[in-house]
Description:
The structure holds 2 protein chains of 2 kinds. By secondary structure, chain A is of the alpha+beta class. Chain A has 16 helices and 8 strands. Chain A folds into 3 domains: 205 residues, no CATH class; 80 residues, no CATH class; 139 residues, no CATH class. In chain A, 59% of the residues lie in helices and 9% in strands. In chain A, strand 3 and strand 4 form a beta hairpin. Chain B has one domain. Chain B contains 3 helices and no strands. The longest helix of chain B has 27 residues. The chains are: A alpha+beta, B mainly alpha. The interface between A and B is large, with 44 and 35 residues.
Amino acid sequence: MKLPTDLVKMYKEIHGWVGIVSGLALFIAFYAGAITMFEAPLQRWASPPTTLAPAPSLARTPELVSKVLAVHPEAAKGYEIHLSVGSANPARMSWTSARGEEAEHGGGVKHYASLAADGSVQVVDGGPSEVAQFIDVLHQQVGLPFAHEVAMPIMGAIALLYTIALVSGLVVLLPSLVSDLFALRIGKNVKRMWLDIHNVLGLFSLPFHIIMALTAVVFAFHDQFYGAQGVVFGGQERGDRGAASIAAAPPPASLSPLQLVERIERQAPGFKPEVLVYGQGRGGLPSLRVQGSDARFGLRAPTYGMAGLDPETGEITSTDYMPGMQDGWSATVTSFFALHFGNFGGNAIRWSYFLLGLAGAMLFYTGNLLWVESRRKKERQAGAVEQTRATKILGALTVGVPLGCIAGISLTLAASRLLGHSATYGLHSAIYYAVFLGMTVWALFRGAAGAGTELTVCSALAMLTIPLSSLMVGPGWFDSESLWLVDATAVGLAVLMVFGARNARQRARYGPSDSVWAFDTKA
Amino acid sequence: MSKPLSSKDWFGKSAAGLVLGFTLALGAAGLFQRLAGICDTFFSTKGQFAMWLMSPVWALTLSFCFMFRSTVRAWLWLTGANLVVWAIVLILEGPQA
């Protein structure tokens, strides 16, 4: 396809700059996002066996609820009944004490309740591991350790740059599309090889990237979008969900969980109910929601769809987010979420999204490599013999940030096994950022060439602490055989990184000596 | 033939794309709201769809605004596009108000 050369040249420059500004943040978002595809299994993998008494049966759940509410009346404001109990949901009943903004983003202290053998109420505050949730937030906030309301607009700006990068990248590729499409020239010309890889990854996962970019813009700016629409076109603005006051305990729901499950199954065959969420709706009236999944449909939330229920009759009253019962508009909006979360079609799609996510991370990594390579070429044309400071710093960051992210996530995951019940969200965050910053600073201090090999080896070792932690705690932590896939995947990635480290070392020794990837021979 | 496209005037063009792209996206959402006959945004799924519309309009305006020959042209054309969209929004609103 022929395009004017000035257009292509302009978009090539734009592509380089938006790419270099957003690339490292996008690497973290995609790597953490790929892992988040398995947030639920990871939570099970990382959660220590519970200290709670075995959960009472569904038939005995009304007894549990009334006993808990007698001791903890504040739980009446909102609590969940878990229909399936396992290591990620150790208790039949749970509730959260959190305020306002904290509650909206899933923060606050979680409480889990069970009935001891003698029928007395048992409540613990520490529940399943939050390390998977930490990785999810890392993904949402492109790796920034800021408060949600600060990090999200920055993520949104990154997402806009990402869209520009996709459009400009496509414009640059179009003229040579036919000749370059199936070409992967692995050989002496390293830059050519990285460019081919970059193009192949970018082009073949383009639909995935378009979805991610446009949904991410919405996830970042939905408050602003709704706000602007509310101001200009009127209508009800997004309500403050934290405003519900603690009314007197609502009358207990007329139907028991067992009856509710039976009514739901009758109305929505194929839907697998997982959690009953009791709360207070507008005006302090009791409200009831069921969360669950249906493999035949995409889901509104990362792992579940939901329906509003009448607590007294068990009748489904709100189907806006109910898989398979939505009207065209709801199903369309849900499809945007489902396409981002990859929660349709079961494990095959989850693994595909995992691989697409890793491919995306590679796309941004190769983009950074290309930027460093072309700077080198430009600088040499300009007569410089040595790399400029900026290129050196960027080369070091290109090594330190991705590898710091990979090692940080690995070690904080493995740490969940050592910490057991004393693990907290804050502790997981501290471990991650200590490793991340340590490796980034090391790369800046050592330079790209040295750090490239050393940190890749470190990351591979960090990855191996994951299966090591499993061997340490033994099969007691595994509630299903399939969780060993976590360890198998970690071993696979570690092997890939060992190969990467070997190649980086070769290049540092025998590659062009004016490269940022070459060992500094004067030192 | 006018002077070739260049990335030198990126700031003026992208500022136009960022500001006028946002108002254009808001106008597009408003247009959809008028045509679909809704006034509630957050609590209706059509309203949510209107909100989702803003993302592609804004992001694509920002991505393609570099194709204008100059900063001035970018601002003028995007202002024109805004006027057209917003005029339709206001006309559709007219009888109801």
